[in-house]
Fold each of these.
Amino acid sequence: MLPGLNILTSRVRWLTLWLLCLIANPTCAQSPSRHVIDPPQEITSLFRSHCVDCHGDGAHEGDFSLDQLIGSATASSTTEMDELARWERVEKVLINGQMPPDDAEPISTSERRSLTRWVGESITSAVQLRGPIERTTLRRLNNVEYANTMRDLLGIDMDFTSQLPSDSRSRDGFVNDPGALLVSSEHLQTYLNTARAALDKTIVSGPAPKSYHHVFTESDRVRWDQQAAFSNRLGRNEIFIANIKDDYPNEGEFLIRVKLSAELPTDIGPPILQVEVGYRPDTQILFGKLAEVEIRQESAQVLEFRGRIENFPLPVRGQEKYPGMQIKLLNIYDDGSPRQEAIKNKAPGQRWSFADEPALPHILIESIEFQSPEDPTWPPHHHRKILFESPLRDGDPASYEREVLAAFVTRAFRRPVEPTELTSFIDFHHENRDQFPSFEAAIRETLAMVLVHPSFLYLRRVDANEPQTVDDHQLASQLSYFLWSTMPDAELLAAADQHRLHEKDELLRQVDRLLADERAQQWMTRFVDQWLKLDRLANVAADEDVYPDFDPSIKADMRAETQMFFRELVNENFSAMNLIRSDFAVLNERMARHYGIASVWGREFRQVPIPNESHRGGLLTQASVLMANSTGAKSHPVLRAVWVRDRLLNDPPGSPPADVPTLDQIDPNFAELPIRKQMEIHRDSDSCRACHRGLDPWGLALENFDAVGLWHEDIDSSAELPGGIQLRGIKDLQEHLLQSYPDRFARSLVVRLTSYALGRQLDIFDRPIIEKLTATFAENDYRIKHLVRAIVQTPEFQD
């Protein structure tokens, strides 16, 4: 350990304990109380007539009893939140028509309506009577936010999170909830190591590094075991290799320029240039991908790609068998047609050749240029951004150090630095300055301390009434991390400095500006991934016996389809009801080909009209959702049904009872039975019937879609929901959701997006704001952009 770093390590340990104490949120702890809702006699009578046989007088089918809600017993062992949550559970099953079951005392439509209305109004009244709940939420930056913030603060792009533990998810699936984002000693040590490594690259010392510059006009013909031909004309079987044997850097930024043109046949997609950097050590070929870009013009153009050399595989110096760092160019466009057979040549230098494919697009490489460092000035721009020019530097070094630290800490903390905070960092720097060989080395260590401070690693927000109102700088951070997943930019901080963000017009102007920025695409992608649990897709492998031609790489396009569909709704300000049913899809060539839709070319996703007779349109028809909720060999109606109830309606079914027998105990040949027979066996079991009655139909209606999202006409997808509602497949299911559940779906989306925006799970005491936002959402035709604007204006977001 370097001299002086014992002090730093002890401070980090103290900070860890302090942070862990602050994370605790006592707000949710409530003492038991008496009933907060007392049903009148007529309501109690309805419950006793239709519900008590199964859920009262000691009976608790489905692990639920009404005794403590409508009986004479007090709620002495139940908290206020628990009791209200139980009433909310009653409300859900009434709305869904799941209770009472068909074999219970029949309930009329008017009786069900009276019960549902009374329960809902009573819960809302009880919550409003309780008043606002004061919450202080302190959470650390999740890994994506941390990486983005380090990149934007330091001005360099490196792997900031590979050594960090993975983020945990909340019950709702989000990775920005304080209950899931705990801090361990492993986190703090990794943050410290990462800060030091990043600052070593950011703040440089010594003379300017050697410059490297190479130009290649023809592909090298290196020793290569893979079946590919070396060429300047790239189809799907050719590669261009630029081999730099000795004269390349070990670290630092580099620039690659590619001058090229293209051959673009009609009625087919454009070629896709992939740029890789790496080497061949021996039997392996190790490359890292630098970029992919679609080539949409035939005429000559120059493309530039930037990276850091140490982020890519580099050869060991001096190895003679396969020396040199290599830049590889490929055309990765593939229309799915059969590939040409490789022809093995005896001539040296070109081991393989292939017949020409003139119907496919080609890239014509004129030259590759490699330059390092990318920035010819020294010190580089990221160094000068922190150690900026100032007249104080030579004339008053102590004042210059204060000036540098004040500027950096203000940017890192995303607010003006307090004098006492600044003094502590200056003192730390002075205490340790003499133990480092240079000013640059000493200032790096002090800035590393800034980067493990709670005000950098943590976001703090307060949900409460006056006087605990977040200031403009906190609001700027909340906006930026909600919509950009990174620190506020200069314009947003300037508005905060002027104390204007609590003004409605300025707040909404900034929201619109942030949403229009390219960085806003990240929150859309991350929110839809976590809300819809698209990460499951990576864990489902298509069965090779059932789908022998399935290319696993298309799963990335499946996931992108859903992400881009949501982006389109936000960017074009379309109604969120398109998520249920839409007359357009957002597809690229590959996904259109997967679905059997013609005349869509290129890898870029765009709106594609869907004809009336098509079975596509909306989330429930997208391969990402269908495959993620399958076995990889077969569809899985129960998984799909749970997903619909949970993700779209925010009404997840309860966990199976502990005494449920395994299915092979019920029937040893269970796995070989048709899916409907399997589900009949499920429903025949007393312990499964109540749950599956209200669950299975949601998934059975999707049975025409197989495990990889392809449509099959000759499948029975009929189903019956509670209340005798008949579904005859996907169109009936979509219509039922739009006609009977628009408010439930809208409320579900409001809950998930508000939870994401606030960075915490919502609870029963958030009910008033959720109802208000849902009403506003409906008034604005369910447009997601309007919902975002409404959320940021709520007291919960601002106060």
Amino acid sequence: MYTTRSHHWAIALFVVSSLTLPGPFIGCSRNRYYCQADKEAECLIAQKSTDPRWAAPPNFSINMDPRSRYFDNCDQVFPPMPSDDPASNRYMQCVDGMKGYRLWHANGDRKQLDNPDWREKLGETVEMTDDGRVKLTLESAVRLAYIHSPDYQGQLETLYLSALDVSTERFGFATQFFGTNDTTYKAEGPLSDNGRTSTLQTDTGFWLERKFATAGTLVVGFANSIVWQFAGPDTFANVSILNFNLTQPLLRAAGRAIALEELTIVERALLANLRSLQLFRQGFFADISIGSSSGSSLQRVGGLYGGTGMSGFTGTGVGGFGNIGGMYFSASSGTGAGGGTGGGGGGGLAGGGAGNLGGFIGLLQSRQQIHNVEQQLQSRLRAYSLLEAHFKAGTVNLTQVDKLSQSIETQRALLLQAHNSLSNSVENYLINTLGLPPDLPVELDDALIRQFQFISPEISKLQNELGDFLAAFGEEPGEPEVKSLQEWLSRLAGLRSRVEQSAADVDGDLRNMEDRSAARLATMKPSERRAFAKDVRVLYDSLNDLRDRTKKAESKISQLLQQIGPATRRQTADQLVHLVTEISGVADEISLIQARARAESINIQQERLDPDESLDIARANRLDWMNNRAALVNTWRLVLYNANKLQSDLDVVFSGSMNTVGNSPARFRAPTGTMSVGLQFDSPFTRLTERNNFRQSIVDYQQQRRQMIQFEDSVQENLRQLLRNLELNKVNLEIQRRAIAIAIRRADEARLVIGEPPKAPKPGEAADNSPKQLGPTAADDLMSALTDLTASQNILMSVWFDYYATRMALARQMGVMELDEKGMWIDKPLSTAARMRAEEAPLPPSAPDLLKQIEQIQVPAGEKVEQPAIASH
């Protein structure tokens, strides 16, 4: 075959140009693109974080915390293949009789979806108990949710994608460079050298494109073609051309209002999503703490048809994509007033009041309700021992004993159900709120709800031990021996000493009650203050009397220890029973004084707000109100956008080119150049579709304008309801305090009725000396009093927490809820926030006024389209 050196050189050039293009011409690596996208998105988000009210979280990133259960420890750029369905996997190996791709497993295989190390790293995030349980507090729950919650991660990713939308649309106005190369080798003719021709041609093109804010477009290009022909003597040709084209619309689709619309939308949407992220974080805390729905989620306006940016934007419909999707922000408040069941709602034992909250506080609330019922059960068990003694003495009938016994079994069954319900609620909370698996062992820390433990665990334990003491002593066979009685009396002396210490602790509760009641006293009427002072004196007097009785019990124990002998065993045993009953009764009365003192110590953060003032605060501070005003203006701008399309098309087009001479790739000469300028006009004879779209944009705007008015009404309504609920809870809290005081008196009286164990009648004893009969409703009265006392405690707790939830909801509704760097609520006074009157935030004009503005817009040919009206909005 005939060849030449130039032929070989040309073939080598062909191979080099095809296989060894430098990196920039092939493209960057995946990792580089990955990092570039992250860096640019984070930069765009930082640009919008100019106001601390909606600034992005510090060190914003969508890369999950390595401690998270959902952290991907595999290469995200070259992800390994996850486990596949075997039946479906066959189609990756062979589809329709054709062999599939052989390198599906080139990046390896993923063994598990979640982070295998997340459990070992829990101790880096939260405190753990000695037995390996997560110590769950409100703060640790918030911390875990921020690390593990898929919902929060999804919001961050939506914000990130909104930033990519901005990046895409900004890129549309940047100078974009392109380059191509097409190299071909062509051989024609017979296989022999005679008459055979072969040609090697390489065509290279470079060009740039630029879109201007006035809707004009510029394209500048350079093209080079090199041809080697191998037929006899080699021939060589090299031709280059330089050209440009500039098109500037003057009427339809012209001007900044049209060219910049899509970029304007995504820029405003990114700002709106930053605000929405703060709203979500506020709702996120509310969801974690009280089970209130977050009420606000980020909404991405770009990427509706896949990819990023505003691909598919038509300018019609509310969002500019017909009626698909929607870029406006909902007018719903989404903040609620607290209450409800939520994810952590529990046992349902409150029996009235404001009901149970959800979230972490709801779990604690359910746990405390269970604790209150357990205390009631122990009180019934102690009363049952005394009632049995009355039955043996003939002072009460079997029906009352059986009623109390049946109520005890019912309480036990209810407690089993409540414990089971609480376990279900904890697991539901772990999954749906914190993003953790249900088998994670946790221990609820009750510090947040400890103020509602009206009877301390120490006194409850002491009461139970006194009851067990009496029951165990009653099981002694016959008359106890002297040594046994001495041991029993020594044990009783220790219990008496603890009762005395409990009285000292309750004295501290009373003094704490006085200190914490100072703010309440300032709001009371004179008659209420006098009644409160009287109640305080009665509580102190009662406690001092119980202390005296405890001291006397100490003397009686000493006397019994001194008089024990073989002849006095029976008498000593009887006196010991009466003595332990006396000490147990003192402990019960001390617990009731403690319950009353602790109930009176519970305070609320009182704050008076006028509904009109609260609305002005909300207008100035609510981020979703800002977003809704901006979204309405977005719809308002689309009226002008579609009005522009009703005009004729008139474009100015400039174009020109210049070629090279000879075989030099850069020898451009003026005689080869051409230049043209022209006008392209399209008359507005067929504008029916544009007319209808324009009319639809007017309707869309009016609908959104009505929704904005309704939004303001709903905000005002919610604020008024919350303020009323706040006042209701404040009054109801005082009512429930009085209800607890009444329930305590009833429980004390009912306990005293059966508190003294009767002596069994001696044979032949006169009827007048027989034990005194209890009333026919003694057991019922005791059960009713204990039930009402527990219910009153639960109701008071529910009212206080509803006040807390309502105050949180009010802070959210007014837009003044602040979170610290850990995501915890900073509870500040609400009345000091900034205000904005209605006249300072007017609505956009109505449709007739808007049409007048559009008609006044005149765009002279060749001038840029500037819209002061839009800029002012």
Amino acid sequence: MSQYSGFKAVPLSGSTSTDSAQACEAGVRQMIANGKSRTALEIAKQFHKTESTPASESLLLDAYTARIQSLIDHDLRTEAKSLLDLVRERFPSARDRFDGLAAAASARGGELNGLLQPLIDPQLSPDRRAVIEKAVQSHLLDLAALADCGTLPPEHPLRQAARALDIAFNLVTSGAVTNEQIALAEVSHRSPLAPWKLLIRAIACLYRGDVQSCREYLAAIKPESAPARLIPAIQAMLAGKPPRKLNSAEEALISATSISLSELRSAFTNLDNAFAKSEPSHIFKAVRAAIRECQRIAPDRLAHLKQLIFARGGATGLDLERLTAALEGNVRQDAEFFRIFAIQMEHSGSPEDILQASELWREFHDHAVRENWFLDGGLEAAALYLHVAEILGQLPEEWVEEVQSIKGRPGTARPGGVFQSPGKLYALACSIDPHPEAFAQWMQWAEGQPDRESENVAQEWCRFRPDDLDPVLHLMERAEERNAIPTALSFLADAEKIDAVHPKVRSARLRLLVAAAMNQLRQNKPHLAMQRLTEIEALPQLRQGSRRAFVPAMLHLLALVSRDVSKAAVALQEVETLLEDKLAARLLLFGIANILKGPNPVQLPLVSAIKREERKSIPKSLAKVMTITKDLGIGKFKLPLAYFDAAEENFSSVANTLEIRELLLLGQLGMSTGHRRLAWAASGVGLERGGPDEARFLLMRADAMLDQRGDRHLALAAAVAELGRFHRQPDMVDRAVQLCRNPFGGESISLTLEQAREVIRRELASPLFPARFNVGPDYRDLLPQCDCADCRRARGEPCDPLDGDGPVDDELDDAAMKKMFNQQAPPEMPPEVAESLFELMRDAFRSGQSEDAIVAEILGGLGKKKKDRKIR
């Protein structure tokens, strides 16, 4: 037998049989497969020496290849290079065959200059390039060496990718990283260094605890690449037990990077549970256990853990002396400590804690400046001022005064007590960083302050940023609200210099000129009013729709004031022609003329004097007039109440002829004048039309209801919120969310889009105005149900007869009595009267009278004088 175990010897003298040669070749290849490259090479040498055939030479070259690869894998680069040179010298015809091994040896040994030199040759063949890139992919271990390789130009993709990977690898193995830090856009998926990118992301996921993503990144790494050598160790870290027996290097890596955190996690869980139960003795015990466990497993994180626990305990209201004892020592009070403590305090939401949070933020500022986190008066400080101002802005007014009276410790308070004044904080932040968003935040706070504070902020905004439009528009609008029209026009001129085509700027000129003309008409200055009318007539915005009738309407009134009958008649004729409606013309003139001092010179016919057929057009005429006043911003437009009554009565006659905007305006008119049925009818027609305004019509319907406490109103409000989101109408959502609070507690009522559509369908099927005998659709299937005993009985659900939530036997609780009272009370009864009557009924019932007798006595006697009772 041969000295080489596992291989049967063959005769080496003379010629061998074909079977024996095949057996020898098979044995050598089996040894190569088993990793016994040295033995395989010795046998292949003897075999080729005996045979000297092309087949034996091929077998010998395969054995040399396996042996050289084994030396490279075991980092015996010198031996591998020597053997490689020997083989290439003995077998010149096979030199190309060993190019890949030569490249691998160079890559593994860091000899990159010679390896990468061919890559700068534009004529390099694709095959040769593939060999070099494969060597880089499979054997390169030193990314920094590749990044600094002078053979390649600095802009070469390989050098740029290696530099980015080297930085990212150092980051991900040193601490927590963000996705942006390891994005590695410089490394394409076709790069030979792409496996390193996957390895870096896998390591990041490992430390984040994202096991699934880590496994996915590891699976995508090419098995033949250099980073693949780390896969078994990382898999062992993930699974807790290795998928195979690890070598010494892998075990050392796992030992250096992995620790068991289960006991520490258990201690933290117990601490969280103790805080949740708010039992001080349990909290202090859990604190001691967590501190000792952290001292044992992660002592480098102990100081930070103490800061976190102290901040949470302080926010919870624990005895800080006992807490310090449980922490086994004082807490390091640095900038990080005050930052953590301030965040904990401000999140509680109570005014006292917000006050303390502002003081803690001041301490943070001073420590951060001393510790060189940022410069005093730098951009970071400005961001801090904005944040503290925002949380102080949440305080009620009475608390703000208390905040401003607080004095900081000597030598630490900011100039002027800035950390106790939101206004000073905003001013200081905007002076450091005059950014539009900072000024907008300041402006939002100032709008809730008295004494025209928002205008002062707008003036400061204009001083720092004269080209910003928002503050100029704000000043213009505030002046317009005060009816200081000349001042508003001056601000408008400034706004037009900044952005003349802005929609608010374009619409403002027409609105302000109209207001100026009406003011001058009121002040009996016809010549100035005529000048304004000339300016108005030149505006292109006036030539749209029925608003063109405004100028001749004003001319008619000016003519009446100057007693020029002929001019007044001509102007009146023009108004009627433009509006194509004589009644609308009269209504417009009457409303504008109300601004004049003294009696109104325009006479409107009594509604009773208008023919019945002509009365049907009153809603349409009112809609035309309301459109004009809305477009021109005319407020305080007064008309006789009888016309609103007639509009409500005759709405159905012209409903199909009204446009969507006219329906909305009539609905708003109905609500503002107390004509709820007009608003209800307009909402119904609008809902039938559909479209993006369906949420507005549905909200109009909810507002028009007399009883806004029942299921129907709640369902309408919830549907408005969902439809407002669908149509991207935040104003509708904000209004509706306030209306759809859950009466049984918990989150606000919400519906799906399909349920909101179902609400519209049910409303269209119930067009009648809600009244005592017309309660409308049943929405109990869409809304959360009350779980009191009374409601469970009404739904036919089992109920404990002794359940304290509801009535027992024949007794009525307050809720049941209120429900019965509301069902029988007239819908037009004022709420304050209804409340007083209910209290009388409840008191009488508790004195022993039956509920039927009480209701009959109280509701049947409405309008009759009682000798012994007064309703206030």
